[in-house]
Design a protein that fits this description.
The chain crosses the membrane at residues 414-432. By secondary structure, this protein is of the alpha+beta class. The protein is built from 11 helices and 17 strands.
């Protein structure tokens, strides 16, 4: 005769192994503990050989401020791992606060898991799988698949409840282990849970990842060919092969962005003059001012006869001329300006040219090796170095203009400042591109992206191999188009 208590079932849910149920366990009924699917977070850090890293949460006392360490098989708020040793943790859906990564007492990164989840597709269904997160950092080095220093011994069969091990646990297995039928050895990859899962618990079906492919045919071939050819050395007008047709287009875009972002004061002051003036105040001492000619009442943007050299408007116009502090502020404001308003549009234009040039090379395949001339790491490297040069060029140009104005110390037409700023930006950009070409900085950045990409690919493939029902489709993200 069956126990009548089994007819009454009370489902209780937990996010991580070892957590207490959210509700009360009723006596005399069948209390079923259901473990919701967790979010996988993998840290793959290769910054300094032999370094030890600490991962902790900033809300360790909160019920939802902890994570599950797959190596130690326990829910914790703090763990450590070595450089080159991937750390795989489980994070509950209701995780609060931040994960903090540090080494030798210095914070490396702070990660708000909820804010980082750009998919937002996980429902309340316990079988629904939250999107994984992989945080990889490294220097230029050849990436190797994640391999732990010491393999874990197999867990004895017969455990009352099992749950699949993590991707990092799989990488800890000896190489010979992979020659076995992995799916028939599932009992060897299991770990004990402190609660007994319900027999009715089912694994979620395989999740699908939809990848949208951009068809090159959607871009006019004539335009693509013209832009791709515009970066060739044959189109350069200088002996260093820097000022190519595409480079000149980029400079025109930069000049247009500068005028668009500053047209208010350029129109008002184009025919005016300004000079630096030093005033010694009785209480505060020496102060520098920029004095403008003309009637300020007729102006809408520059409404005063003079401004302090640290004024935001002066920093924009004269590069912070007058003091070291204002010059540094101008350099900082200039670097930020490269990524805002029209400057951002010009930067997007540059990235579009980079992409067109890369796509042209990507389409070319070596008939002997079957490999493409360029890969995705080359595109990321080129864009990354161009972004860095954009900010650095704007900062140096602003500081240079301010220094020249301060050294001259004469009454200067505003039109000279405008033209001088444009010339300085072009000159600094040219020098930075020449340095890049001579030193191979872009190749170094590309190598770094390729190393990180290989590391991410290895982690994702481990996730797919360990939990195929959840991650079978993720490795395709790293498959070339």
């Amino acid at each position: 005769m069956s126990d009548p208590r089994t007819l009454v079932k009370s489902y209780q849910y937990i996010d991580l192994p070892g957590e207490p149920p959210e509700g009360k366990l009723w006596p005399g009924v069948n209390n079923i503990i259901v473990l919701r699917k967790h979010r996988d977070v993998v840290f793959d850090i290769k910054l300094k050989a032999g370094a030890t890293y600490t991962l902790k949460t900033d809300q360790p006392e909160s019920k939802y401020g902890r994570f599950y360490d797959t190596r130690r098989k326990q829910t914790t708020a703090r763990t450590t791992f070595q450089d080159g040793e991937p750390l795989h943790i489980w994070v509950g859906r209701r995780f609060q606060g931040n994960l903090i990564l540090s080494s030798e007492g210095k914070e490396i990164g702070r990660y708000a898991i909820k804010k980082m989840d750009c998919t937002g597709t996980c429902t309340d269904d316990p079988k629904d799988k939250p999107a994984p997160m992989i945080i990889a950092m490294g220097i230029n080095q050849e990436a190797q698949p994640p391999v732990a220093k010491q393999p874990l011994g197999p867990v004895r069969s017969g455990a009352p409840a099992i749950w699949p091990l993590s991707a990092v646990d799989m990488s800890m297995m000896p190489k010979s282990f992979y020659s076995l039928d992995q799916f028939s050895q599932r009992d060897l990859w299991s770990c004990r849970l402190p609660v007994k899962l319900a027999p009715e618990t089912e694994m979620a079906s395989t999740q699908s990842v939809h990848i949208s492919e951009v068809d090159k045919k959607s871009i006019p071939q004539e335009l693509l060919d013209a832009v791709a050819a515009g970066g060739a050395d044959e189109t350069a007008i200088d002996r260093n092969k820097i000022a190519t047709r595409n480079w000149l287009l980029g400079q025109l875009a930069g000049m247009g962005a500068f005028y668009s972002d500053n047209k208010e004061w350029i129109k008002e002051l184009w025919s005016e003059k300004f000079r630096l003036s030093k005033v010694v105040h009785k209480n505060v001492g020496e102060r520098w001012y920029v004095v403008f000619t003309g009637n300020p009442r007729l102006r809408k943007y520059v409404t005063a006869a003079r401004y302090g050299v640290k004024n935001a408007k002066v920093l924009t116009m004269a590069g912070g001329a007058g003091s070291l502090g204002s010059g540094l502020n101008a350099a900082w404001e200039g670097s930020k300006g490269a990524f805002k308003k029209a400057g951002l549009v010009a930067l997007i234009f540059t990235v579009a040219i980079d992409t067109a040039e890369w796509l042209h090379d990507y389409q070319q395949v070596d008939p002997e090796t079957g490999k493409r001339k360029k890969d995705f790491a080359d595109l990321l490297g080129k864009i990354g170095i161009d972004l860095a040069k954009a900010g650095l060029s704007a900062a140096i140009a602003s500081a240079l203009v301010g220094t020249v104005v301060a050294l001259i110390g004469l009454t200067l037409p505003v039109s000279w400042i405008v033209v001088g700023t444009v010339i300085a930006a072009i000159g600094v950009g040219y020098v930075l591109d020449l340095i890049d070409k001579k030193t191979g900085a872009a190749d170094s950045v590309t190598s770094w992206f390729r190393s990180i990409g290989e590391s991410l690919k290895a982690v994702v493939e481990d996730l797919g191999r360990t939990m195929p029902n959840d991650y079978a489709s993720y490795p395709m993200i790293f498959t070339p188009i």
